[in-house]
Amino acid sequence: MLFKEKIYLSNCDSVRGLDEQEIKKRVLIGLVFGNGIITSPNILFDTKGVSEVLKQKNVIKFLNEEGRGNFVIRGFNIEDIGSFYEYFEKLSDNYKVSSLGGKEKVTLSKSELKEIRDNIKKLDTVINNVHPIYENATILKDSLSNEIKKRITREYFYNDEEFTEFLFKSQDLCSRSEWYNFINDFLNNNVPRINLFKTSIIDPAYNSLFINKSECFIQDNIKILDKIPKKILDGGVLFNSLKSEIELIEYPIKAFEIISTFGSNELVKFITDEALGYMEDKIKDTSLEFFSRRNWFGLYPLLSQKMGVEIK
Prior knowledge:
By secondary structure, the protein is α/β, with parallel strands linked by helices.
């Protein structure tokens, strides 16, 4: 496996509105390259395509055998969940359903409610086949804002006055949707700056709330998803055979030493079908020495920048 950590599938977040094929690819990448996957309830029932992946025979086989216990669903008050249908019914009226254009639950039409309820019923049928572990996320009301404040720095602003105004006006915000609305207004619909704030600060801060120490989440600045081998998407291929192909990359640290040495574009070459040959040739041609896990945190910024992965 490429990563020794469990991976939170933040790049499948429903707010992205990705198509089902893209979602399928991302879930399978998490299963193949990580030491298990973590999702939130809303990723499961509010992202089209996740249920279809969990129905694949190879996914069911993997999660019931060598991957058993490595599928975690983490969210608010779900340890004693009866069903996702029940979970959805208990959500507040102002819950925003991303797969239906971000509408609040209370504003959904009868047909829209039926659509999402039907999808959730299918999920409840599918989920029992893969035996997930349910864990409560311990997130306080001000957790997101506190995390955002840790990440925000003066460099994101034109001057000290704007920075001070931002801190003052944002002090009562709680949810991610509130932060999205605030940043749109505060930055006067300046799309490049808004996107920078969302992708560099708000979204990573939000995702970090769902992972524990020694876990990670994926962002979208890894630009190689279209280069993933097609056989990863084949529902018949065994996961242990895919994992064996990248077994040479024993630790994530090896991945970004290669990136830093040969360039980020080279990442494509060692996760495609030519992985082993390419890696072996590069190692023979250089005096490259791999770091140990003890040096992991010294390369943390490189990991975040080059691969779009953040580890606690």
